[in-house]
Amino acid sequence: MCLAIPMKVKSIHGAFAAAEAGGLLREINIQMLPGVRIGDYCLVHAGFAIQKIDPERARQTLSLINEIR
C-alpha cells in the first residue's frame, strides 16, 4: 500500500518546490502538476507532487495522521 501526504507549497524554484507538513520541510518535484502555486496543498508521494487538493481536505487528513502518531 502506498501513502501520499498532504503538504503545503512554501516556495517554488523551477521544477521543484519546498513543501511543509507537520513542521517538516522537504523539497518535492512538481513537474507533474503544472500551475501549482505557493500556498497550494498537494498530495506528495515519494518526493513527487501527484495531485492538488482542497485546503480543508488537507487539514482533515493531516489531523487524522496526527491522531495516529
Can you give a write-up of this model?
With 69 residues, the chain is α+β, with helices and mostly antiparallel strands. 20% of the residues lie in helices and 46% in strands. Strands 3-2-1-4-5 form a five-stranded antiparallel beta sheet, covered by helices on one side. A hairpin with a 2-residue loop joins strand 4 and strand 5 (48-53). The longest helix is centred in the last third of the chain and has 14 residues, at 55-68. The radius of gyration is 11 Å and the shape is globular. The two termini are 19 Å apart. The relative contact order is 0.25.
CATH topology: SH3 type barrels
Strand segment tally: 5
If helices are DSSP runs of H or I spanning 4 or more residues, what is the number of helices? 1
Indicate the proportion of strand residues: over 45%
Read across the widest sheet, the strand sequence of neighbours is 3-2-1-4-5
Mean pLDDT: 94
CATH class reads Mainly Beta
How many separate domains?
1
Q: What structural class do you assign from the helix and strand content?
A: alpha+beta
CATH architecture: Roll
- Flag low-confidence runs: none
Characterize the largest beta sheet: strand count, sense, and whether it forms a barrel: 5 strands, antiparallel
Distance between the termini: 19 Å
The amount of helix comes to 10-25%
From the spread of the alpha carbons, the general shape counts as globular
Order of helices and strands: EEEEEH
Cα Rg? 11 Å
Tags for this model:
69 residues, alpha+beta, SH3 type barrels, five-stranded antiparallel beta sheet, 1 helix, 5 strands, 20% helix
